[in-house]
Specification:
Helix content is about 40%, strand content about 20%. By secondary structure, it is of the alpha+beta class. The strands form four sheets. The chain has an eight-stranded mixed sheet.
């Protein structure tokens, strides 16, 4: 029996405003608990909310970026429910008249093909606070931090167009890159700046009717999303094949134990008793306002990709990787500006830098090596001060904080490449003198096979020089001297 998966995402994006959506309280991350929640955020008697214009501007920017309909008249409503970190007892959000209407985002699949994922809508709303739990259920304790309460969000709701975890992750990464490029979100998922709710159902292959869905909430990494989807799809198929039925419910995924559990039965809209917020008038945006936002839009990844091809002569593949994430793109351009070599910069960023970041689960903004330091490594490769092999040692030193520049580490460790022709000739002569059998084999070999035999001699010379001999000069001197012996 074959099954197919149907997935839709609800993505909560924290907007990068300095203040909250309805108050002047700060949204800065990392403040002491409950120091950034004012009376308005708590809906204390006598307070009235005032809408933050910057939140609307950011929402419109997102809508324009996905070629969506912009809701020129949007209405805030109250979504009523109890939760310990929701001090108002309701959330101010949008339902029937959201700020962003239908749009789409195109993703690239593993085989290079593309797929359009439709966006149903995106609406503005306020975030809740945060519950903090310590210890086990019986003996532990919980605390409430309301600093996040009132932080502006856009909730992006996709259509159920996603067929597997690979597509879900590709879609989430594309969204992540887009909101960072727009400058409307810092993208720091570990800080809750972007969170994913994944709606999952399965059905027999070829069926049109959707299966009963579950919603796995508050996933804050691409890896966790992939794991949670795989686990839930397997669970649903097992239940159905055993003759059971899927219960519509909200679930939580535990990334530490790689398990999931049901949290509550899934609510419908009428469970929340939505009604228009009596404290906020409808917000009307005219064409002039939307056009002004359009004129101020930053460079988007697709345009930046083409510019990287045109300006830096990168391949389409390299340009796509480097341009997709704004932070990586900025890192790349800052490196190129200082070393004036786009290709080497691209190779190092996509190679050593990315490999280290992935291994340590860090982002480019957390890299121990900044663009100036990387440019310094590349500059020393270009002027033949160090070989590529030695450059990796210098890179290691910078990564571990053993020096503040490539030159410092090269000097401290004595890694400068030997490019003195006299010293290199002496090394070559010594290796040739100590390699009688290899020299005889070289002389007897077919001329076409001799180039492959150079590796032994080069290896011995590099060993003698502790890897610091200039490889190109060694090859030139070695070939010359060996040809004289033939």
């Amino acid at each position: 029996m074959e099954w197919e998966t149907v997935i839709g995402l609800e993505v909560h994006v924290q907007l990068a405003t300095k203040t909250k959506i309805f108050s002047g309280a700060s949204t800065q991350f990392g403040a002491a608990p409950n120091t950034q929640a004012c009376a308005i955020d708590l809906a204390m008697p006598g307070t009235l909310p005032v809408a933050n214009e910057q939140a609307f501007r950011y929402a419109v920017m997102f809508g324009l970026a996905i070629d969506a309909d912009i809701g020129q008249r949007s209405v805030f409503e109250r979504k009523n429910y109890f939760y310990p970190d929701l001090p108002k007892g309701y959330q101010t959000t949008q339902l029937d008249a959201p700020i962003v209407g239908a749009g789409q985002i195109e993703i690239t699949l593993a085989d290079g093909s593309t797929k359009a994922i439709r966006i149903h809508h995106a609406h503005l709303e306020e975030d809740a606070g945060k519950s903090l739990h310590e210890g086990d259920f019986e003996q532990g304790m919980s605390g409430i931090d309301l600093n996040r309460a009132g932080t502006p969000l856009i909730e992006i709701v996709s259509e159920p167009d996603i067929s597997n975890s690979d597509e879900a992750v590709a879609f989430a990464k594309k969204l992540h890159s887009l909101v960072i490029a727009l400058g409307i979100c810092d993208g720091e998922m570990s800080q809750g700046s972007m969170r994913f709710d994944v709606n999952i159902s399965v059905r027999h292959k070829g069926e049109e009717k959707l299966g009963t869905r579950t919603e796995t909430k508050n996933l804050n990494s691409f890896k966790f999303m992939e794991e949670a989807i795989a686990l839930e799809v397997e669970r649903q198929i097992d239940v159905l094949e055993d003759g059971g039925s899927i219960r519509q419910e909200t679930r939580l995924y535990n990334a530490d134990t790689k398990t999931a559990r049901a949290m509550r039965s899934k609510e419908e809209a009428n469970d929340y008793r939505y009604f228009p917020c009596p404290d906020l008038l409808p917000v009307v945006l005219d064409d002039a306002y939307i056009d002004s936002v359009r004129q101020q839009m930053p460079e988007l990844p697709i345009a930046r990709c083409q510019r990287f091809v045109d300006e830096y002569a990168l391949s389409a593949y390299d340009a796509a990787i480097l341009s997709d994430n704004t932070h990586i793109a900025n890192y790349f351009e800052a490196t190129v500006k200082q070393c004036n070599d786009a290709k080497l910069s691209a190779n190092w960023i996509m190679g050593e830098v990315s490999a280290r970041l992935n291994a340590e689960e860090k982002t480019i903004t957390q890299s121990p090596i900044n663009p100036t330091q990387l440019a310094g490594v590349i500059a020393r490769i270009k002027d033949n001060s160090i070989s590529n092999k030695i450059a990796k040692q210098v890179f290691d030193g910078l990564w571990l904080g053993e020096g503040d520049s490539a030159d410092t580490i090269i000097e401290a460790k004595g890694l400068k490449q030997v490019s003195d022709s006299g010293a290199l000739e002496s090394m070559v002569d010594e290796v040739i003198a100590n390699s009688g059998a290899q020299i005889e084999n070289y002389k007897k070999a077919d001329p076409e096979k001799r180039p492959k035999m150079l590796g032994y001699f080069v290896g011995q010379i590099m060993k003698a020089s502790k890897g610091q001999a200039n490889p190109k000069m060694i090859n030139d001197i070695l070939i010359k001297k060996l040809n004289e012996l033939v």
